[in-house]
Design brief:
mainly beta, Jelly Rolls, five-stranded antiparallel β-sheet, globular
């Protein structure tokens, strides 16, 4: 058995081929992300990984659309997105496969 604490993880990421992690694998990356209204992430895409985001609570904006609790957004490699928390929000994010350094920022 292995025991970790969410507070010890970096930006909510707890499964993947990075440190610290509760479970090390390159098959996928998993995070529970907590956002405060107004938090943003830069416009980006992934060349290899598919990114799946499920909104657990709150309202967010991705791909120029608003999403709320229960929405699941699947971005294929090459699809461009940015992110803004319109309210306080909690998301589960899964990337598969787990590929380090596969986030490419876009200047707009």
């Amino acid at each position: 058995m292995n025991h970790m604490n969410y507070e010890d993880m970096v930006k909510g990421w707890f499964v993947g081929a990075f440190t610290p992690t509760a479970y090390s694998t390159d098959a996928c990356e998993v995070a529970v992300k907590h956002y405060v209204a107004g938090d943003k992430e830069s416009t980006h895409y992934h060349k290899i990984a598919t990114e799946i985001t499920m909104v657990l609570s709150g309202r967010i904006r991705m791909c120029d659309k608003e999403w709320g609790a229960g929405d699941i957004i699947v971005l294929s490699p090459g699809e461009i997105t940015d992110f803004e928390a319109l309210t306080d929000a909690i998301n589960v994010v899964v990337k598969t496969p787990g590929v380090l350094n596969d986030k490419y920022l876009i200047e707009i």
